[in-house]
Backbone:
């Protein structure tokens, strides 16, 4: 009976989140919007805050329940906050190493591959200006990108990440906990991936393959969700999930900056190389949980 109640609340969250998110995109185009900057950025940012909006609506208005305690909005810092902050950077280097081993892909510290990817979206004058700016940087743009990702990951990007995570790893995680770690995190990952479909179809993450990119995004979120859920549960705070989400969004394009060749299905964190890196991280976390952690989460009830 309890699981039926949980499922109904989770189902209502999913339905409302999808409806409001997708209607936002539909209305944007109905009223003449074009998927170009700055409009696309404004809509994408608003999209990220819809899970938070639905969570507040359900918790405070419909169910009249507390948000901070019930959904673990805790500011009590622990080591898992730090792990959440730096793990996407480690993912960046791991993905980069895997990418270099792929046929047709090579390390490009001169940013040749990065500039080649920009040719289709920028004018020659704009591209020349970016090249000139890169030459005048005090350090290599990749290292500056790492610094900016770390800074944004715990500030502005974490705020945007919280817009999603209060819903996915807050409300929905709580309502699906009865399923156990793997079933709940994979179900959230699957729903989370489908929820991205309108953005992916506009070229987000997979500009060369937007239709197939929807399937790729689902695979990506399925691999990402257990990591986010584990960090959130170990930290005992949804804010840790917001930090890892923010750091990931800030660093997701970094491997492509120093790579030449490949395509959006194979290279980068959202490509097959990134999937391999995420599998490794899942495995490392599972081994840590099984052999070293005092509080079993991933490996609970596995003998």
Residues:
């Amino acid at each position: 009976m309890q699981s039926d109640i949980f499922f109904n609340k989770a189902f209502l969250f999913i339905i409302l989140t999808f409806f409001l998110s997708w209607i936002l995109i539909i209305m944007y185009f109905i009223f003449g919007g074009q998927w170009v900057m700055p409009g696309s950025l404004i809509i994408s940012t608003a999209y990220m805050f819809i899970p938070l909006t639905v969570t507040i609506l359900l918790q405070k208005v419909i169910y009249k329940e507390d948000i901070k305690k019930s959904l673990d909005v805790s500011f009590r810092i622990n080591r898992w906050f730090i792990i959440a902050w730096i793990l996407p950077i480690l993912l960046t280097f791991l993905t980069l190493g895997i990418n270099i081993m792929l046929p047709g892909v090579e390390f490009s510290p001169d940013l040749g591959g990065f500039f080649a990817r920009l040719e289709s979206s920028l004018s020659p004058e704009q591209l020349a200006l970016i090249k000139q700016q890169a030459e005048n940087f005090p350090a290599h743009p990749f290292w500056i990108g790492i610094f900016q990702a770390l800074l944004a990951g715990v500030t502005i990007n974490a705020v945007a990440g919280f817009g999603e995570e209060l819903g996915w790893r807050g409300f929905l995680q709580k309502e699906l906990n009865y399923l156990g770690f793997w079933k709940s995190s994979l179900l959230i990952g699957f729903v989370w991936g489908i929820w991205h479909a309108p953005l992916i179809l506009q070229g987000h993450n997979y500009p060369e393959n937007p239709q197939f990119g929807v399937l790729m995004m689902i695979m990506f979120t399925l691999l990402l969700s257990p990591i986010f859920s584990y960090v959130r549960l170990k930290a005992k705070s949804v804010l840790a999930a917001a930090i890892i989400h923010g750091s990931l969004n800030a660093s997701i394009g970094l491997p492509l900056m120093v790579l030449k060749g490949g395509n959006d299905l194979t290279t980068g964190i959202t490509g097959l190389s990134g999937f391999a890196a995420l599998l490794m991280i899942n495995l490392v976390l599972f081994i840590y949980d099984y052999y070293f952690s005092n509080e079993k989460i991933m490996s609970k009830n596995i003998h």
Observations:
- The first strand starts at residue 105 and ends at 107.
- The longest helix spans residues 2-30.
- The chain has 14 helices and two strands.
